[in-house]
Amino acid sequence: MEYPLYVHRDGDTGFRASFPDLPRADVRGNSLGELKRNAQEMVELMYDRSEQLIPAPTCSTSELHALDVDDGEGIWMFIDINLARVTSKAVGIQLSLLESLLQRVDVAAKERHMTRSAFITLAAVHELENR
């Protein structure tokens, strides 16, 4: 699956990046190739054999540019993450929400530097844990 990754320069020779859909997954690398390999490894470490749901990737560039993570000093890349190597998998769904609720979700997600999909996934996990 192609996940968006926001990449910054890290000093003169390296790169640092973050996934808006995977808020705790920050990666570094000395080259873009190393950054991509480290991104795959980070997702595997975070989610393999885990009960955590992997959020579906955000593909909307307008939604990505609206995030606070986009400070205008980095670039967006889409990284192919091989989820076949990870036991936890996300499934795309379609749902309907009241427009006013969706606006509140978007504001809350933006405050937390995450996408709508990541926020809704975490909200569902929170509700299920509190049953």
TrEMBL record:
<dbReference type="Pfam" id="PF15919">
    <property type="entry name" value="HicB_lk_antitox"/>
</dbReference>
<dbReference type="InterPro" id="IPR031807">
    <property type="entry name" value="HicB-like"/>
</dbReference>
<protein>
    <submittedName>
        <fullName>HicB family protein</fullName>
    </submittedName>
</protein>
<feature type="domain" description="HicB-like antitoxin of toxin-antitoxin system">
    <location>
        <begin position="3"/>
        <end position="123"/>
    </location>
</feature>
<dbReference type="InterPro" id="IPR035069">
    <property type="entry name" value="TTHA1013/TTHA0281-like"/>
</dbReference>
